Task: inverse folding
């Protein structure tokens, strides 16, 4: 038995305990724990980690003295003890939750402005490639990454993963070619996996990756199920699915930077019905004691994001032309934060979802942000000799949009209050946001106007006759910010007749009466 | 009395006859005529042209000998005679009509592929400016221009027109400024016009302009009513409106290149109801014996283009993002040719409708054409010292899209058959057209694929295993066409990972069985 005596707030307190290893420990034995202090009491499950070792993890939400009590069929013994939770270290703000209906904040109250990317199986590449990805991410503005727990079978990604989540052996992948891989979707024959026996090292590796992301301040948006499968992982029985979701919640829930994406393109999994998603969501709700963010990502049809278990919309665009532009509508419809996890990818693949320009990607980011939503990126440039595409393998970025997201993030962080909403007084042909807290008909404290693909030579503003506003003109593509001074009453801001300009307007004073 | 003895087919046979000039000849007297030969008999009205002269015009649709008989209260006399209709001169294809539900052709069967522009009051500028406009148009690919019969009061166009359509005097326009002009919309006070007494020279000047356009092969899409008014022309009584529509149909119907746009932004005229438009449309139907094309153009809400009197949809975009992309939907909904008369204008005005880039304008043109619709352009760059904007005054073009329309028109003219329709086998994320006559599930004779704002590195095609297709890759922006040879079966066309590319695929042979 290994224990810690001390853990930071929102860190992981972990116990590794000896137990039975006969039969199938993944299904035959259970381990449960209770962790408590004066402010909270958390019941949670542990998991079998192989080699006769059971682990149980806890993420404390308060500073101070905690006690624990661990028991279960895995051992005759009941394990108890105490530990101390210290103040969080710098950069540890706790898990992200939803706030003010449409927005996010860390547990310590720091607003979280999501700027996401997707690298579906970056963690299943070589160590060198994984290191590459982490370095790229660390230098980037990204603070969320979506990736799959299971391996991926898809265009540009037909090789074997570095290892498998289950004991057993896969079908012969030597038969796969870029031309025929589609025939192997959902093919179960030839695979010999035991869906009741996990390979703990597969999951330990994912935990290492989650922790590395945590160090760079990046949320790990874990995709639990997906349809890019030739191993049978997307077509397990209900009992096997349940076992899997319980296993990963037991392993991953104590990581503060975990988000749950119940599925990617849920509507493409042939063996799953709505009832399956709802059942798995219930398990997620029950087994994750911290209530990490939960959503489910569509292909053609949105899941009903009004369902109570869904904390935020995780959206793939369903229109080729109106993408980020629909954020207003989705906010109203679902009453939750709108995260655009796929608005097409910057690249040049033959697929329509993977060949927009850097300009268009950046434009969709700003459209999204200036409508009170949160944008997501990925990159799909035709791979070079190494066969790597950011969207699937991580590695290096080749596009033009990603370098420009830091400016957007900086601007988002300047929002007074928790986040932006569409300004009610916007004309139909302009994009304009104000702080979420702005009252109807009130003069806004702050206003972010974005001219998108349009190239106006000026913009007229009028809020009232009393308030002074300082004005900055932002070229979102060329990444310049120009101070334009202070204005009151009716004023006109000249613009350079270029696309992708923003105007940031901040209340800075009030005329004396 | 002046007469001709001879006129070409679809030319104008005109008679100028003396008549009463006492009282108000515009309302007190009428002149009616019958023109006939073995194939047709046309009854129509003439009009008072001032100075005691009445005119009546006829556009013959057949070659051969015609007779006429003119009578009415304008004179005690009945005028009869004969004339000869000769073969049309080169370039005279007759008036344009709709064909095959969604398309247009001239009366001689030549397909007409509309490439429009808008210069609302180009004809009310100085002679020099008018000459400029005509020269610009003659060099351009435009074969249709929208303009207003009445003068225009609007941003960048607050001056007086060169003359007025009615006897009387306007309000003092010295009070107008770029800041206050909006207050004068629909202002009737201060104007002293007699809406029962036309100024014939105003209309003669428009006729001269229509004829000049005709020489350049350009259709004159005449806007009968519009809301950009400070003179009261948009707020006349029903009787005055009827008188006006009868007057212009009598004057203009015999011009083969005339189209009728009953109103521009019909929904912005405060004094007009649907019943008014329907009544005026009935007059148009009754008084134009040639059935020139008729439509009505919206601002916010489409008119119901299913109405029988409407020959084609004249559409202003009602979504900022989905514009030309809606052509498929509108074709289905209205079952008529879809003409996009306003899909925003290339320019840099502060108004959202007037500040898209040349690239975006060209993209909307190709999107429209590759969905079986017909696009329209205008230009709204902030005026220089001369105060001129193409969209209002004509003159010269400054944008980047217009030079690229000839290539599109050339490609449209290569369509086998009468026009294009959306290809049923298009994926949702591509744009692809085939000839309108293509049968469901048939291998198309021809296919025009457009990659829009996407930048694919290739596109896969498969039609069948037997047909040979010659392939050309078109860079619509850089205006290059590359022959790529002949393909059969499954084939991949490599593309340069740039936006705005098209692929033209033409059946060129068949494998022998």
Result:
């Amino acid at each position: 038995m290994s224990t810690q005596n001390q853990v930071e707030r929102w860190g992981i307190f972990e116990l590794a305990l000896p137990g039975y290893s006969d039969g199938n420990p993944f299904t035959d034995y259970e381990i449960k724990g209770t962790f408590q202090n004066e402010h909270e009491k958390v019941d949670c499950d542990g998991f079998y980690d192989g080699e006769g070792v059971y682990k149980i993890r806890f993420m404390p939400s308060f500073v101070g003295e905690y006690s624990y009590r661990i028991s279960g069929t895995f051992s005759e013994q009941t394990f108890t003890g105490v530990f101390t939770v210290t103040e969080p270290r710098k950069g540890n703000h706790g898990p992200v939750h939803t706030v003010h209906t449409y927005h996010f904040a860390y547990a310590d109250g720091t607003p979280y402005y999501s700027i996401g990317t997707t690298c579906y199986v970056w963690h299943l590449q070589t160590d060198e490639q994984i290191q590459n990805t982490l370095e790229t991410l660390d230098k980037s503005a990204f603070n969320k990454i979506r990736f799959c727990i299971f391996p991926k079978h898809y265009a540009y990604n037909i090789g074997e993963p570095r290892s498998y989540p289950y004991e057993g052996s896969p079908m012969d992948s030597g038969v796969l070619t870029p031309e025929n891989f589609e025939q192997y979707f959902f093919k179960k024959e030839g695979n010999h996996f035991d869906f009741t026996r996990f390979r703990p090292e597969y999951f330990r590796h994912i935990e290492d990756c989650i922790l590395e992301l945590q160090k760079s301040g990046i949320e790990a948006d874990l995709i639990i199920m997906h349809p890019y499968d030739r191993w049978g992982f997307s077509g397990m029985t209900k009992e096997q699915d349940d076992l899997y979701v319980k296993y990963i919640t037991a392993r991953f829930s104590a990581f503060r930077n975990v988000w749950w994406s119940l599925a990617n393109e849920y509507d493409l999994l042939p063996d799953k019905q709505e009832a399956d998603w709802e059942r798995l969501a219930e398990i997620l709700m029950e087994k994750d004691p911290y209530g990490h963010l939960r959503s489910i990502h569509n292909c053609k049809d949105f899941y009903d994001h009004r369902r109570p278990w869904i904390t935020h919309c995780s959206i793939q665009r369903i229109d080729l032309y109106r993408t980020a532009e629909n954020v207003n509508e989705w906010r109203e419809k679902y009453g939750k934060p709108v995260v655009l996890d796929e608005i097409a990818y910057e690249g040049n693949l033959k697929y329509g979802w993977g060949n927009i320009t850097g300009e268009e990607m950046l434009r969709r980011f700003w459209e999204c942000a200036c409508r009170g939503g949160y944008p997501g990126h990925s990159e799909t440039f035709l791979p070079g000799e190494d066969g790597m595409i950011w969207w699937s393998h991580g590695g290096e970025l080749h596009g033009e949009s990603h370098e420009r997201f830091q400016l957007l993030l900086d601007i988002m962080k300047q929002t007074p209050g928790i986040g932006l909403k569409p300004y009610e007084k916007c004309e139909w042909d302009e994009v304009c946001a104000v702080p979420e807290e702005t009252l109807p008909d009130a003069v806004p404290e702050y206003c972010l106007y974005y001219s998108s693909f349009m190239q106006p030579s000026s913009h007229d503003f009028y809020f009232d006759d009393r308030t002074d506003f300082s004005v900055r003109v932002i070229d979102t593509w060329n990444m310049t910010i120009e101070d334009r001074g202070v204005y009151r009453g009716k004023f006109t801001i000249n613009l350079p007749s270029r696309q992708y300009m923003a105007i940031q307007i901040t209340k800075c004073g009030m005329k004396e009466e």
